[in-house]
Prior knowledge:
By secondary structure, this protein is an alpha+beta fold. It has helices at residues 77-85, 94-109, 140-150; strands at 30-32, 42-52, 59-69, 73-75, 113-120, 131-135.
Amino acid sequence: MNERKSEKLTLLGNKNTQYVFDYDPNLLETFQNQHPERDYFVKFNFPEFTSLCPITHQPDFATLHISYVPSERMVESKSLKLYLFSYRNHGDFHEDCVNKIADDLIQLMDPKYLEIWGKFLPRGGISIDPYVNYGKKGTSWAQVAFDRLTRHDLYPEPIDNR
Length: 162
């Protein structure tokens, strides 16, 4: 049997998709990396991320940039989309959302490297752009994570009324 067909993916191709709007990491699914011997980046850009301010309950909007170097498992994109949608009614600060997403993806996939950059739209005249990364301990990716974090955003892009 084709290894990809033997995966237990329940969301991909499902015509009866149910959208959940309360934080649910159980929506995430993985599949086998077909090239675990090679290091390469996978990047997702999610321009429709929404969560709620935990104090005012006003909506917060962001574009999330998620990049990772897979090990044995990879996140399935539809499950990632549904998982990110599940933040719709979740109340957390921007920094907490980005860190929680990182924690969930690390636990799910055990990647070699992961980084997430949230670019939130301004509210109250200020935008917040939290960045988190992770490199697997005991590998060269731990040093990459440190280096990227310490050099992160040295040359920020111009902000022109995002």
